[in-house]
Amino acid sequence: MRLAFTLSADDADRTKPHPDPYRAAAARLGLAPGECVAVEDSPDGAASAEAAGCAVLVVPSQLDVPRTPARTSAASLEDVTPAVLRACGRAGAGDQAERSSSARIPSA
Fold first, then answer.
1. Is the Cβ–Cβ distance between 17 and 47 less than 8 Å?
2. pLDDT of 23-47, one tens digit each?
3. Is the peptide bond before 17 cis (omega within 30 degrees of 0)?
4. Residues in CB range of 25: below 8 A, 6 or more apart
5. Which of 17, 19, 41, 66 has the largest count of CB atoms under 10 Å?
6. Rounded to an integer, what distance in angstroms lies between the CA atom of residue 74 and that of residue 60?
7. Cα gap 78→101, rounded to integer Å
């Protein structure tokens, strides 16, 4: 897999659970946060992504991540398909004003 870029805690003034890392990543991609799906495994990361306006896919690891209407869960990354990512975009498009009405998720 080829990554477009990496972004770490050192690249943002405020780190998770603040929305800054996800807003910076979306901006670097030239997208609105509402056009992005964040994959997270921690409560702080999920809160950060949700506060930024991203749809959130939770793949649990060591910590329980609270469920919210804007979060979709998968038991494993092996369970994640393009259809799951599209569902994340629909779940995340709910009430938040920053979210776009449809996420740009590549189809299979």
1. yes
2. 999 999 999 999 999 999 999 999 9
3. yes
4. 7, 36
5. 19
6. 8
7. 27
